[in-house]
Hints:
Blueprint: H1 5-13, E1 15-18, E2 30-33, H2 49-62, E3 69-72, E4 75-80, E5 83-89, H3 90-93, H4 103-119, H5 121-126, H6 130-137, H7 142-153, H8 165-170, E6 174-175, E7 187-190, E8 198-208, E9 214-225, E10 236-239, E11 243-247, E12 254-257, E13 267-272
Antiparallel strand pairs: 1-2, 3-4, 4-5, 6-13, 7-8, 7-13, 8-9, 9-10, 9-11, 11-12, 12-13
Amino acid sequence: MPDTPAAFAEHYLSLRVTLIPSTPGEPPGTVPVSARNYRNNGHRDTKGSGRAMHRFLAALANRGGVEGLREAGGAISYNGPAGSVQPRPLHDILQPFDGKGSSTLFNDVLKFAALWIARDSHQRARTPTLQDFADAYIGLDCIGFVRAYFLSEFPGSAGTQHASISAFRERGFNKRMSLGEVRQFDVMLPATGNAHIALISSVGNPRRDSRGRVTRIECEFAQSAGEATPRRPHNGIQHGPPAQVTVTPQDGVFHSAHTPDAWHGMNFYAVDGVPVQPVPHSGLGSSG
Length: 288
């Protein structure tokens, strides 16, 4: 049974990182970290994550005499007292800095980051803890969250094949035309523009009119939302509480109300990203 989008979000919000010892004989430990923040490589880099990323990669490539840390063929791996980390190509290690990647990749990047912080006094002054590092430099953007979900929970589905928001609108996905068709795991798209994308984690409490048509439901959304605003006080990876969703005069366009997130007061489409479809890869585009 696949994780719900809300449960999947918790994988990022509740990481447990097993530390690689920075010196021989040092016992490994485990640190809780939340990769809670929004990160998008198309937005202003106000915290210097690009510069930090390159210093980080250089430190990994040099290995610094850490027992079990290896660099070969452009990939970093670890096999030592704290267990192992599969070979990670350097371009994969870049992904969490750019708003992409699985929770397992985030965990591995944080293991390597702990080494860097322990051995580099300048970086330790900037980000003394792994949570500081995560808050400053890594996270998911909205399309990164959606694509990571489908890659993890529905491999081979149509939802794995796109790296842009617009592709979900343009590539023939099954659009829900009535509120009664909306399902768990559906993809949410704004009725106009490509500013955001999210997932429906649960659907319940339908209300019907005198003709039996569903006119209101409650949905829990899961997403990584962008910059905080007075209307939306929290950014980053989030889910719940359930929001009221109602019909609009236009078929296939629904209205979200009474929710403290990016969808408050917005009209949206819902499309099915789960079925396996021969949909061509869209390449890069709007990245959430």
